[in-house]
Amino acid sequence: MSSFWSIWISVITLGTILGCFLLLRWCLKNKTGVKEGDDMHHEFDGIVEINNPLPRWWTIMFYATIVWGFIYLALYPGLGNFKGLLGWESSNQDIRSLAESKAAHAEDLANGSLNEYSRAMAAAEERFGPIFEAYAQRSVEDLATDQEALKVGQRLFLQNCSQCHGSDARGQRGFPDLTDNDWLYGGNPAQIKETIMQGRHAAMPAWVDSLGEQGVKEVVAYALSLSGRKVDPVLADAGKAQFAVCAACHGQDGKGNYAFGAPDLTDNIWLYGGSEMAVTETVTHGRNGVMPAWKDILGENKIHLVTAYVYSLSQDQ
């Protein structure tokens, strides 16, 4: 925060409290010309107004809140850039990366700083760390049958994964459905865990420059035919000859390859849409979807539980 805004906020804050104090003092003075307790000679609907002072208990309470306001502003941050005498912070400010956040958190713990976020994280780790550690000692297959473990895994999924894959894990355009047992990088526990830990970076190139617009139409027709779709047979036959450039990743039979994250083109499940227009867009411009790595964010123990939850979703399919 710049010095100007720091001073501006401080002046307004302190001025407001001081204004309340002066207003209270003004209201305590009798400026009516009528002795306290006497009739103000004003009556309405049988109610007579008496010149009574402010209640003493209310006045004392008002003074107390003003004093507390000054004490609070002295101890805690609230006046612009002033951090307060206690050095308390709600969180580490101006953090621009996960690495910076972790370094600041470690420094707070080492120095005993009054950083609320770091203290809350430390308390949570002390309380829940042993629980996650115990779960991590069990296999994913075992956890996938434990309802209590799955509830924990589901909460972690909802907090961290549902933004892309949906709260029901059925995905959306560009984000895989995790319930259908159709996996780009493999669906066994080890492969799922690796995906969550390390993330994935898709790299399907654009083919329009190599194939031309007509070549794209032909390859799209052949790709659609692999899943039993009705297409122009002439275009499909021409596309089959050019499919060799696609087979390097998708295989000669079009069934995909886990090593490259290349999808199976024969099952009629399409990540970016299966219409002719959507597939044409994919072949023309390529796809470069990115799933972030969660190892440094959640840690391996929590990812172990998320893996069990995700793995369980497709086991009845």
UniProtKB/TrEMBL annotation:
Q: In which pathway does it act?
A: Energy metabolism; oxidative phosphorylation
Tell me the GO BP annotations in alphabetical order.
proton transmembrane transport
Principal localisation: membrane
Q: Where is the Cytochrome c domain?
A: 148-227, 234-314
Cofactor detail note: Binds 2 heme C groups per subunit.
Cofactor(s) needed for function? heme c
Record keywords, A-Z: Cell inner membrane, Cell membrane, Electron transport, Heme, Hydrogen ion transport, Ion transport, Iron, Membrane, Metal-binding, Oxidoreductase, Repeat, Respiratory chain, Transmembrane, Transmembrane helix, Transport
Superkingdom of origin organism: Bacteria
Give the transmembrane region(s).
Answer: 6-28, 60-79
**Residues annotated to bind heme c 2:** M204, C246, C249, H250
Instruction: Indicate where this protein resides in the cell.
Output: Cell inner membrane
Which InterPro entries does the UniProt entry name for this protein? CcoP_N, CcoP_N_sf, Cyt_c-like_dom, Cyt_c-like_dom_sf, Cyt_C_IC, Cyt_c_oxidase_cbb3_su3, Cytochrome_c_Oxidase_Subunit
Q: Which SUPFAM superfamilies match?
A: Cytochrome c
What would be an example GO MF term here?
A: electron transfer activity
Family statement = Belongs to the CcoP / FixP family.
Say what the protein does: C-type cytochrome. Part of the cbb3-type cytochrome c oxidase complex.
- What does the subunit section of this Swiss-Prot or TrEMBL entry state? Component of the cbb3-type cytochrome c oxidase.
Put simply, this protein is called Cbb3-type cytochrome c oxidase subunit
Give the organism the record lists.
Answer: Bowmanella pacifica
